[in-house]
Amino acid sequence: MISIRKHVPGPHYGTPVERSLAAPHALAGQTSRTSWFAFSSGIKDRNFMNSYSKMLGVLDLFSPECLQLTTDAIAERTGLSRATVYRYVRDLCESGLLSRGDNGYVLGARIIELDWMMRQYDPLLRAGRSLMHELSQETGLAVFASVFFESRIINTHIDDPNDTYQFAFGRGRPLPVFRGAQSKVLIAHQKGRRLRRLFDEQIATDPGNQLDWASFARASKKIRNDGYCITHDEVNPGLTGIAAPIITPDNHNLVGSISAVGASHKFELLRADTVIEKVIDTANRIAANLRRRHRPADGVEKEPEHPQHSRGLALSRSGASV
């Protein structure tokens, strides 16, 4: 009997990560009953995802305090065997996510390429970049876009009209949990069990935290009811921040936050209510842009046009710059 097999990309093309991602599909194309049964039972799929997660977990070991790692250090910190670590490091290097340094391994150039792609094509930034710039120009304040993922708060974009301050937590560096306006807004809008887990695992264990669960829950509810959060000197000494959540109007999903940050002593010159209104309005307009976005026939997304508003804040650049 002649067996006709459907052609499926095999496990020998592309980078190691691409080969790993293709492996289940290649396996599904085999005619062997034993192989198909093992795959369909989910056993191999679960093992693959577990191994893949562990390999990518090596990247989590890098930090500003640990910019280079040896294979021995990776094995010690992960509990993995040296043979497994060598295999993971080899695959990560071939994929460009790691690179060999002088005394170990460092983050690779592929990460820079991915960062460039995010700056250019991230849906939140494409929907909000021009609106953030508009808000920054109108107020003279630095405007941040921030997101929540895996219990972390990250600034993904900063529009600073004067580039005056060196922010303690700039783009890409995780912010403290429930400290600072954008962090508090994103944490407060987490739901139910996740909110309690964040408090138990990260906030309650923070030496600088002074809130019990009841106080934290009340503070979070107030932020949700107000629709914004304002903080003073919590993340960057001498700075005030006002943040609002970006929530899609159709399915009410939290996708990020927008915040305006400026010098605390100069914030008194601003009409805080007007700034709050502008920040909330910008967040809502970004959410509306996310809903309206569509892909044209040529497959290239285009930036939505935003009419320039004639109204603006009566702020002088000298009095409002941060």
In short:
It is built from 13 helices and seven strands.
Report on this structure.
- With 322 residues, this protein is α+β, with helices and mostly antiparallel strands.
- The chain is built from 13 helices and seven strands.
- The strands form two sheets. The chain has a five-stranded antiparallel sheet, with helices on both faces.
- The N terminus and C terminus are likely disordered.
Give the helix/strand layout.
Layout: H1 16-28, H2 33-40, H3 43-57, H4 71-78, H5 82-94, E1 98-100, E2 105-107, H6 109-121, H7 123-139, E3 142-149, E4 152-159, H8 181-188, H9 192-203, H10 213-226, E5 229-232, E6 239-247, E7 254-263, H11 264-267, H12 272-292, H13 317-320
Antiparallel strand pairs: 1-2, 3-4, 3-7, 5-6, 6-7
Structural key phrases:
alpha+beta; globular; 322 residues
Determine the strand fraction and express it as a percent band: 5-15%
Mean pLDDT across the residues is 79
Shape descriptor reads globular
Low-confidence segments, ≥5 residues, pLDDT <50? 1-13, 16-41, 294-322
Task: State the total count of DSSP E strands.
Answer: 7
